[in-house]
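Entry:
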Amino acid sequence: MAAIPGHRVVVFIQENKTTDFYFPTMAAWGAAVANRGHLLEAPPNFDQPHDRNAWVHYAMGDYPALDAQVNNDTVIPYYSWLAKQFVFCDHHFGSGSNSTPGHMLAIGGQMPTLKNPPFTGPHPVWDLPSIFTAAEAGGVSWAAFPDGSGYPTKFYKSLATPPGSAEVYPPKDFIPMAKAGTLPHVCYVWSPAGYDEHPPHVSTPDYVTKGQNLVWDRV
């Protein structure tokens, strides 16, 4: 399959949100999401346990889960506008694991691990296919813009070594390439730390706003 001339697909990937948590008011627009009321006008300002171990203890009744939803029309108004103006994927499900497996599922269709590899020091590199190797095989140009540390493309052998590594760019290159019209046909773009909407470990009340505004600026 060849790329369609003049068309590009750009995917912006953020962190640690579920559809029901982030877009409850879309239920009024016919989306298959829950709206349990009592919506938060600001996102939780700390990171919740969200690995498989936390889910197992929740399922065993050891402790309850945080039952919270944000008012997307006030917390993430730009995303809400996109959802209502264009299209909204309401049948989206996470992997029920840490962040890294979710990212690898998103670009590779499979998870070689159910937990995060070490964030410092040596890390695993898996010889696995990805959306980018599929694009390459189909003659479709592509680029990946991971965060400043190379996350998560650094876990893929085909993206961490030549020739694939030549199509992996730092996040700062995205806007200049977009303005210059040099983006390839398929791009996956991650946000640097502090702008990926990942709940903070220390108080950062504007962490979601900063992430949304970076995506808005990129669009």
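The longest helix spans residues 207-218.
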